[in-house]
């Protein structure tokens, strides 16, 4: 309710630095950002820093529990699976597939989504209707079903899953971007800019996009968390990544039969998935909160 | 006014259904395998059978004729036969879809019953204890992979404590005739056989899948209700009411809630698309005999007619659910009717 500031303090900082200062004061979101960066780095460097190869078998160490357990071995910090493969190495490499591929999928969706969304935002009448309603159809097909159909056409595999996920994420993305663009185009400063003789292209690149790119980042985080969950779900259903690919969902599905004998092989990939999605959501939520606060003052 | 709005909505519906059927039809060509097999589900037919089928499906005519014949078959309920079972796809859908729908409706019910009050509480105590607790819980529920949650619940409640059964809809001891294919309704129609034990058993089978499936929509509804309430609570008419000296309970229950819940109603209907996606995973884990598990089995078995039938049924359902949600929303909220007329 603090609409009237008694002591008005002039803030001459740039919008971005104000954003960062506010974001820093939100500690959960800040921690999540660090986790997010760590996961991204892990996804890029996992094959080099993992202690063992993903398919390297140790026949002397089958189904070892994690090292803090009495029967554990310090060579295998998170234990081994039924083929004597180091769980830690596999999980680290899993970040490349689950997290890294999700980021790539979300980035491609962003590129295409921003393009189509802006197009839908600046067009009127029939063209706008057609763009929107064609996308509504894909929106009405549940995303997993859409993925199943694409996989039925292309065959199972990790890369096909990525296409399917991009396709399933796109409609919502285009809708959100379109709404942002339309909202922005209706504002007065854009009208003034237009009256100054700015072309459509200038309106978009100088007026609209600099003002919505922060919101695009928020939408990106939402798309990313959905992408992670979808890639893992498809891997779990054996439709996406095929073993011995170390995608987290696929690892989970592969070890499902060991749930009694070696619960850590099932539990740990799930924990990692949870952490990855949670950190993404926390960053997105924090960012959205900060954007709202910055707008308020 | 309302009539024009309706007209727009219905023409949109027709357009969407048309595109959907075109898409389903084109899948026959996109799927790998023999065209005639994709159309009919008949494998290894000899020459004369193939001739008859080609005639029936108008394979040798142009695409328009083929599509027309396809539409006629869809409407008359002749949805080809499944490659794996050899039975009519339409009958499969009729038998399996209610099971999925039942699960989704109960999950949505749980989500509404828990999510909306939680959202209201969170907004009433904005940035204080209850809000922080509810918010953190929501964020965690939002982030948990549903299949992992299901496995955890199975590990705890089925394997460790043995409280709930792990799979299926009802114990093998009980025999319930499928009438409506909704298990609880069927049991009720047949007068609660086995002294009500069957009903109780079905409820126990429902418990875990419902909880798992309800997790995601609950978190969505909590967040949505909370945001909507916070938005309304900042409006000027709320300030006026406060200035008049109304207490918080009156403020929230009589003034804020009515306007805040309007967008939530729409959101409930829009949940079905996500719900069915999640139901597919849940059904696989809990061996629930619904359309989701059937579709996933169909993809393992490359059962193309089944995938097409499932796609058509599920998407039609989602489209109509969305339409119904938007329509009821505009029925309750005259403002949205005024500005939109069904335009985008």
TrEMBL record, chain A:
InterPro entries: BP-dependent_transpt_permease (IPR050366), MetI-like (IPR000515), MetI-like_sf (IPR035906), OppC_N (IPR025966). The chain crosses the membrane at residues 29-54, 97-122, 134-155, 216-237, 257-284. Gene3D superfamilies: MetI-like. The keyword Transmembrane helix applies. This is Peptide ABC transporter permease. It comes from the Bacteria. Keywords: Cell inner membrane, Cell membrane, Membrane, Transmembrane, Transmembrane helix, Transport. It is found in: Cell inner membrane; Cell membrane. The keyword Cell inner membrane applies. GO terms for cellular component: plasma membrane. GO terms for biological process: transmembrane transport. Belongs to the binding-protein-dependent transport system permease family. OppBC subfamily. Residues 95-284 form the ABC transmembrane type-1 domain.
UniProtKB/TrEMBL annotation, chain B:
The keyword Transmembrane helix applies. The chain crosses the membrane at residues 12-31, 105-125, 137-164, 202-222, 268-286, 306-325. It is a multi-pass membrane protein. InterPro entries: BPD_transp_1_N, MetI-like, MetI-like_sf. Pfam families: BPD_transp_1 (PF00528), BPD_transp_1_N (PF19300). Residues 97-325 form the ABC transmembrane type-1 domain. CDD domains: TM_PBP2 (cd06261). SUPFAM superfamilies: MetI-like. It is found in: Cell inner membrane; Cell membrane. It comes from the Bacteria. The keyword Cell membrane applies. Keywords: Cell inner membrane, Cell membrane, Membrane, Transmembrane, Transmembrane helix, Transport. Belongs to the binding-protein-dependent transport system permease family. OppBC subfamily. This is Peptide ABC transporter permease.
């Amino acid at each position: 309710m603090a609409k009237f500031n008694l002591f008005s303090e002039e803030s001459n900082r740039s919008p971005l630095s104000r954003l960062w200062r506010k974001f820093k004061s939100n500690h959960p979101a800040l921690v999540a950002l660090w986790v997010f960066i760590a996961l991204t780095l892990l996804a890029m460097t996992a094959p080099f820093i993992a202690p063992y190869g993903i398919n390297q078998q140790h026949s002397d160490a089958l189904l070892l529990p994690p090292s803090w357990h009495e029967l554990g071995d310090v060579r295998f910090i998170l234990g081994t699976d039924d083929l004597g493969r180091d769980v830690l190495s596999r999980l680290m490499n899993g970040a490349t597939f689950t997290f890294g591929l999700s980021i790539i999928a979300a980035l491609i969706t962003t590129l295409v989504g921003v393009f189509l969304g802006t197009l839908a935002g600046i067009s009127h009448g029939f063209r706008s209707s057609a763009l929107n309603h064609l996308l509504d159809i894909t929106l009405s097909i549940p995303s997993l079903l859409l993925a199943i159909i694409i996989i039925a056409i292309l065959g199972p595999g990790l890369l096909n899953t990525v296409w399917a996920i991009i396709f399933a994420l796109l409609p919502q993305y285009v809708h959100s971007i379109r709404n942002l663009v339309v909202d922005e185009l209706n504002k007065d400063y854009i009208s003034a800019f237009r009256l100054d003789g700015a072309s459509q292209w200038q309106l978009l690149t100088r007026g609209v996009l600099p003002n919505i790119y922060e919101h695009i980042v928020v939408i990106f985080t939402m798309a990313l968390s959905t992408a992670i969950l979808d890639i893992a779900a498809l891997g779990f259903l054996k439709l996406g990544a095929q073993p011995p690919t170390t995608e987290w969902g696929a690892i989970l599905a592969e070890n499902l039969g060991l749930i009694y004998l070696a619960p850590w092989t099932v539990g740990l990939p799930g924990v990692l998935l949870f952490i990855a999605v949670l950190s993404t959501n926390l960053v997105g939520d924090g960012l959205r909160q900060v954007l709202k606060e910055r707008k308020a003052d | 006014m309302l009539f024009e709005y309706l007209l727009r909505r219905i023409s949109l519906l027709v357009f969407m259904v048309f595109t959907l059927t075109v898409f389903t039809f084109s899948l026959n060509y996109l799927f790998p395998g023999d065209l005639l097999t994709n159309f009919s589900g008949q494998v290894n037919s000899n020459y004369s059978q193939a001739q008859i089928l080609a005639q029936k499906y108008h394979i040798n005519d142009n695409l328009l004729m083929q599509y027309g014949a396809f539409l006629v078959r869809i409407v008359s309920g002749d949805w080809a036969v499944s490659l794996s079972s050899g039975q009519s796809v339409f009958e499969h859908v009729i038998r399996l879809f209610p099971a999925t729908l039942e699960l989704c409706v109960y999950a949505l019910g749980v989500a509404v019953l828990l999510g909306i009050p939680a959202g209201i509480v969170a907004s009433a105590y904005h940035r204080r204890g209850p809000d922080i607790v509810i918010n953190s819980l929501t964020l965690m529920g939002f982030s948990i992979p549903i299949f992992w949650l299901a496995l955890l619940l199975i590990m705890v409640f089925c394997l460790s404590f043995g409280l709930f059964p792990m799979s299926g809809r009802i114990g093998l001891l009980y025999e319930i005739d499928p009438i409506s294919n909704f298990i609880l309704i069927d049991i009720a129609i047949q007068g609660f056989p086995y002294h009500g034990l069957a009903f109780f058993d079905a409820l126990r089978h429902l418990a875990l899948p419902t909880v798992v499936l309800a997790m995601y929509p609950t978190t969505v509804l909590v967040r949505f209700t909370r945001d909507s309430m916070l938005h309304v609570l900042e409006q000027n008419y709320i300030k006026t009411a406060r200035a008049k000296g109304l207490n918080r309970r009156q403020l929230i229950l009589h003034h804020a809630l009515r306007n805040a819940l309007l967008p939530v109603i729409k959101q409930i209907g829009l949940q079905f698309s996500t719900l069915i996606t999640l139901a597919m995973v849940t059904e696989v884990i809990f061996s629930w005999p619904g359309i989701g598990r059937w579709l996933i089995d169909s993809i393992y078995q490359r059962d193309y007619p089944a995938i097409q039938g499932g796609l058509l049924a599920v998407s039609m359902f989602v489209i109509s659910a969305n339409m119904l949600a938007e329509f009821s929303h505009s029925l309750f909220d005259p403002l949205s009717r005024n500005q939109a007329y069904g335009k985008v």
